[in-house]
């Protein structure tokens, strides 16, 4: 969401670990926020929104981004690794995988 992209909490935690954080410009942040709340949260998945997200990802890659964090549970409904060569980090999937690892640990 726009809040997550604009607030320092996550950015600071990543930067403390040596990860440089790039976020979309203001119009891109607005687009992401609108698509999440006015489409994905309502179960709507639109091809034009997918293309807009992919353009934003490409713009970040052009600025040097080596991967994109999908930091909202709904974004995985819209884009997947099959849509782009840019590595995607789907936080919903990553959290679930870690939970299973911890549950199955000795």
UniProtKB/TrEMBL annotation:
Keywords in alphabetical order, please: Isomerase
Q: Where are the transmembrane segments?
A: none
The protein's matches in InterPro entries, at most eight in alphabetical order, are given as: Asp/Glu/hydantoin_racemase, Asp/Glu_race, Asp_race
The organism's superkingdom is given as: Bacteria
- The broad enzyme category this protein falls into is isomerase
Gene Ontology terms, MF aspect = amino-acid racemase activity
SUPFAM superfamilies attached to this UniProt entry: Aspartate/glutamate racemase
What's the Enzyme Commission number for this chain?
A: 5.1.1.-
Among its keywords, does the record have Isomerase?
yes
The family assignment reads: Belongs to the aspartate/glutamate racemases family.
Name of the protein in its database record:
Amino acid racemase
Organism for this UniProt entry: Candidatus Anaerotruncus excrementipullorum
